[in-house]
Amino acid sequence: MDCNYFGKCGSCSLYQFNYEEQLSYKVEEAKELLSLKDAQIIRSKPSHFRNRAEFRIWHEDNKIFYAMHSLQEKSLLKIDSCQIVSEPIYHLMPKLIEFLKKSEILSHKLFTIEFLSSTTGNIMATLIYHKKIDETWLKEAKKIEDEFDITVIGRSRGVKLILSCDYIDETLTIFNKEFKFRLYESGFIQPNLKVNEKMIEWVLDNLGLIKNDLLELYCGHGNFTIPLSSHFNKVLATEVSKASIKAASWHKELNRCENISFARLSSQEFVQAYNKEREFRRLKDIDLDSFSFSHILVDPPRSGLDEMSLELVKEFDNIIYISCNPTTLKRDLEKLKSTHKIVASAFFDQFAYTNHLESGLILQKKSL
Ligand SMILES: C[S@@+](CC[C@H](N)C(=O)[O-])C[C@H]1O[C@@H](n2cnc3c(N)ncnc32)[C@H](O)[C@@H]1O
């Protein structure tokens, strides 16, 4: 990738390498940190791989421009394109900014634009303002949806204005099977949807032979839950975010996955419920004793697993640990190694040209 802003724009920190070099640099570091010699490596597309991107808006002489945080200074850098965003976002960006420039209502006090695209090319743009937005703005913003056939949302302090809807349709293809999703504006979404598909396929390839029921913590909108569900008798999946659990329940309907139960619980709350220390109304329709879990899947935030969740995870015969932070993964792995052995590992380049690297581990109880 040959980007004019490499070395200046704060978005890509590993700008001095080409795609393969930045990948081996990160992978070698992570292999050493985690002592994983044989980890599989899952590549990203070298450019146009990000399905989620956020740009600040620079105002100058009654004109507006995209901007990113500068790499070296505490300031913004004016940019006119970005090569890491998906092709649909890349092609929309210059046309959209030209369109917005022509409208005082749409451009005045516009602070940030967030883009989200699906693998199938649908786009959502969230326009965030430092001013009140109202019916007049709504009417004007409708013209963006009509012109570009995209979904637009307006946000200002305490206000969210939805024009046609607040999601875009997505289809994930996992081993030639299609799964329907809706990508909502709020809630977690994997940033590199093509690598995400490969990550789900890697998990499916490494589940092992005996598969009873699956417990999943940090399930988000059901990204792993939906494609994995048909490989288990029953699935219980939990997550703290209300918006994500609402989306997950919709994805269950959309894909007719009748063997999944979703519950909105933090991982710590789930441990309390599982250990029968506390009862939750949110679990009133779910009989925890009816599950016979053979696997647990965890995909925690960067902070990794808390002590309570780690103790719970240790009880399971098969652990699938997806991590976006090798440092906290190492910390948790040190503890899991007393009871479990690693049977498969992989690195997924979700965040090319940055120091971040996604890892996947399959662990099995030593006594099995
Ligand atoms: C890395 S994301 C993974 C989501 C999902 N597995 C996916 O692939 O889209 C981590 C998720 O954990 C959720 N989360 C954060 N803290 C949590 C907690 N204490 N308990 C349960 N879920 C939590 C976040 O809302 C987010 O959806």
CATH architecture heading of the largest domain: 3-Layer(aba) Sandwich
Write down the Rg: 22 Å
Main β sheet profile: 8 strands, mixed
Strand content: 25-35%
Number of strands: 17
Please give the CATH class of the largest domain: Alpha Beta
Topology as H/E string? HEEEEHHEEHEEEEHEHEHEHEHEHEE
Q: What is the number of domains?
A: 2
Anisotropy-based shape: globular
Q: What is the count of helical runs? A: 10
Average pLDDT across residues? 96
Physical arrangement of strands within the biggest beta sheet = 1-16-17-15-14-11-12-13
Q: How would you name the CATH homologous superfamily of the largest domain?
A: Vaccinia Virus protein VP39
Straight-line N-to-C gap: 47 Å
Judged by helices, strands and strand pairing, the structural class is alpha/beta
Helix content estimate: 25-40%
Cofactors, ions and other ligands in the entry:
S-adenosylmethionine
